Amino acid sequence: MASMLEVNDIHTYYGQIHALKGISLTVDEGEIVTLIGSNGAGKSTTLKTISGLLSPRSGEVKLRDKRISGEPAHKVAALGIAQSPEGRRVFPRMSVLENLRMGAFVHGTVDSADLERVFTLFPRLKERSSQKAGTLSGGEQQMLAIGRALMARPRVLLLDEPSMGLAPILVEQIFATVQDINRQGTTVLLVEQNALMALGISNRGYVLQTGSIVLSDKADALLRNEQVRQAYLGES
After folding, report:
1. How far is 96 from 129, CA to CA, in rounded Å?
2. Strands 32-36 and 187-191, how do they pair?
3. Mean pLDDT of the chain
4. Which tens digit of pLDDT belongs to each residue from 70-107?
5. What's the rounded Cα separation, in Å, for the pair 89 and 163?
6. How far apart are CA 141 and CA 189, in angstroms?
7. What order of strands is seen across the sheet that includes strand 66-67?
8. What is the pTM assigned to this prediction?
9. DSSP letters along 174-190, please?
10. What per-residue confidence (pLDDT) applies to 236?
11. Of 227, 203, 83, which Cα lies nearest the Cα of 155?
């Protein structure tokens, strides 16, 4: 299987704080790969470094063997990486449709087929298309954040804590939709505190602690790993 995304020995800093300490990972074409770890482990920083929101001090990120680290975020998006950020970050005063159109900015025009794909995945967004995003429920805003990212037609979709703050039934819906997106051909890198759900839909996973990867394996093996079960699955 071809490697879609490669992260090689990335070191990222916030000022003097060494946030990522030699992170290396790969995501193969067609996979769902999850990053799990506690708060402050470096999961979101990893995604921000991949998407160009942060620049690594050393190391490199490659998409389809093309180096993209050091490129600005809009260029990374145009090359095929889109991020649905932690906290959704929708534009609250803009309508659902306007938010989705913003996701297509890297192409210059809005393709009706892209809109239809999002509305098929998230019928609620079609019903709410003229509603201001700030008036949506948390679950609807999460759908919008993912839909907005899909409007960029990404090769790799970065999802940062898509289940955060959602009711269990909505969490199941979001994860089922992530699987649908993946089956339609989009490679997914998922950051998620709900390790059980995330590993349940993933091919492989990486465990982060204080800016370093301490464990990587197939998802089903991580689900059986006693250390992972105790630390991240709430089992004693």
Report:
1. 5
2. parallel
3. 89
4. 899 989 998 999 988 776 788 788 899 888 988 777 77
5. 14
6. 20
7. 17-28, 3-14, 58-63, 66-67
8. 0.89
9. HHHHHHHHHHTT-EEEE
10. 45
11. 83
